[in-house]
Amino acid sequence: MRARRETLVIGALCATWYALSSASNVVGKLVLTEFPFPLTVALVQLAATAACSVPVLALCGAPPLPSSCRLRALVPLALAKFLTTVFSQVSIWKVPVSYAHTVKATTPLWTAALAWVIFGERQSRSVQTALVVIAAGVALASATELHFQTAGLAAALAAAALLSLQHLLTKRVMQGTRAHPLRLLQALSALAMLALAPMWALSEGGAVASWRRTGEGSSARAGALLAADGVLAWLQAVAAFSVLARVTPLAYAVASAAKRAVVVLASLAVLRNPAPPLNVAGMTLAVLGVLLYNRAKLSRSPAPLLPV
Hints:
With 308 residues, the protein is an all-alpha fold. It has one domain (34-208, 219-299). It contains 11 helices and no strands. The radius of gyration is 19 Å and the shape is globular. It is a multi-pass membrane protein. This is Sugar phosphate transporter domain-containing protein.
């Protein structure tokens, strides 16, 4: 009875995670369509994650970051998170959500390359096969994408590469300090927000003020969408940690790959972006490759990664 109840709880948490992640991406695209300022959207997301995590951390009694988790270790991680968030928003702004997420499926490719360059780590035959499947899927999706833009592709690839670097560095910090994942996420979001604020003031601060003065769009609607996007980004992160806390790393990796497929399907259904059959086939192949990679990789190294 208890096992059945736990299965139902995990299923509900996964469904909530998928729904929140899909809603976050769809709302994010709507925000950037009406309010074309990706740095502002990234800043709001980081601020929401940093601020909204405080009461949750207090409620669950999460311990503070250990003294071994010093600023010197957190700053590179925070910079990686800051850049990942910015490039992710630029990619969603420039290309359809479905294509941006398909390109971000190249994260394992970047992870394998960085692990080889930084740590000299070589991959098994099964991992290499999965990487080839991912590359083939992304190449097919790119070749058949109707709304292809070089800037969007570059931003999505940069986001995937930076997310891989963030995963590798986070794994090192978590293994060395045993920091609570959600506490670490809150600290990194706050530091990334501080790093982004000066860049935002110089590049978009004046443009946002001018946009409001000239009435180019509905400030009230854009503000509501922006607030919803920030809260949804935080909620989907909390849902991801809730799933990770209840399942094995391999099960989480499978659920994460399934989540990416759900986000792609939800964006196609809600935003109604045209997708030829070969484009859908490329997306499917890329997601399948991620699933194979996770299974091959995590069966050998069960340490979880920061999921956002």
